[in-house]
Prior knowledge:
The complex is a heterodimer of chains A (about 110) and B (about 120).
Chain A: E1 4-7, E2 10-12, E3 19-29, E4 34-39, E5 46-50, E6 54-55, E7 63-76, E8 85-91, E9 103-106
Chain B: E1 4-7, E2 10-12, E3 18-24, E4 32-39, E5 45-51, E6 58-60, E7 68-73, E8 78-83, E9 92-101, E10 110-111, E11 115-119
Parallel strand pairs in B: 2-11
Antiparallel strand pairs in B: 1-3, 3-8, 4-5, 4-9, 5-6, 7-8, 9-10, 9-11
Amino acid sequence: EIVLTQSPGTLSLSPGEGVTLSCRASQSVDSRFLDWYQQKPGQAPRLLIYAASSRAPGISNRFSASGSGTDFTLTISRLEPEDLAVYYCHQCASPPYNFGQGTNLEI
Amino acid sequence: QVQLVESGGGVVQPGRSLRLSCAASESTFSSYSMHWVRQAPGKGLEWVAVISSDGSEIYYADSVKARFSISRDNSKNTLYLQMNSLRPEDTALYYCTRGGYGDPQGSFDIWGQGTAVTVSS
Lengths: 107, 121
């Protein structure tokens, strides 16, 4: 079973700042199967990044991601109030298709 | 774009059963694996189960194995989750979400709005 650990748990930042979120896997993950999701308050999750670094359709280029093996990152530049959300990394390589515990981003 | 609409949630006593449904708006439903993901109140996302496009591959989280059963009817564009022997810790918002093309691997690109399940006496 692949366990994903995200850090930090909570971040409080100001509009205009940039931030990098971390996701570490307990074993190597094929980067084709590492995703990031955004969940805004009261909403369903939304796919943000797939295959470790590809933006999903309609996602702002302020969001970028990278990584391989066991270490992955999501970077958000020029934070906007609408970026207030919980961000989850996720592996869809092998069952159980676990999520990280999430990073709560406060703006 | 495909839309997913869950239904069937409600309040149920511990030990009882409930069946959730997820209706897809397009017939492309039959080409993709489908997952159930849940979220307990104030908690993170927990993957629950997956079924491949043709139903030949099914996997469950350990927390629901032997109690929950995932199935699909491609002729009706509908996904199901039969939940038996429900426990208070199964209380959550249950989302259906579309996975990879064909097999279970692949990102969850489309999500429903969820159906709430409360297990309480």
